[in-house]
Amino acid sequence: MRHELILILLTAIVLLIIYIILRNWKSCFYWVFKSIIQLTSVLFLFILLIYSIGILFSYLSDKSFEFGSLKLSDQPQFNQDFSKIQKYSLAARYNNPGNLRPVNSQAGFRQFPDMKSGYKALIHDLEAKISGRSKFTSGDETLEELIYIYAPPSENNSKAYVSKVALMLEVSISEPIANLDVHQLAKAIIYVEDIRLFKKIYSTSKKQLLILNAVESK
User: Fold this and answer.
1) Which end of the chain has the least Cβ crowding within 10 Å, N or C?
2) Given phi > 0 = left and psi -120 to 50 = alpha, else beta, which region is 174?
């Protein structure tokens, strides 16, 4: 659509130049081109209006939330082909987007029959921790404290981890976990845990990938 607008604009400019030249000649063509220019101007304004309405409608109807400065799909997509990244991604290979450990064990990672099941397990784990139903939390922790429990310093760079999650959620690291939305928190954790899998689950566009890379570099 952008190319069509540019073409119409260039056409209008050319016609305007011809109009100015013929006006000086007072030729009969002057009236013809005057009418053409008027019609072209009306057409250009009409297309511009439709284009603007389309952009506005697309923005208002986009069922997505702000994920930092990045708009992402409101729902994760599990009908993707994850086979291409399984070689590089343990999370994809095990259908475990949150890299959850086995219950009552810190050895190895849980394996799920499909990615949707792994995502549901992540949500269940986070809900338990946020509500205080987990034996590891009381529900009164901050985001920083939660991440240090979820991704302990013995296995992760917890400081960098919590900084990225807070940046993606646009909250302070001292934000009470009771204020967090579990699905948004899960998205941020998946992003930090495995960027390749994150890009597949949330079907990011090229523009979104540029924003993600900018966030990753911070």
Assistant:
1) C
2) alpha
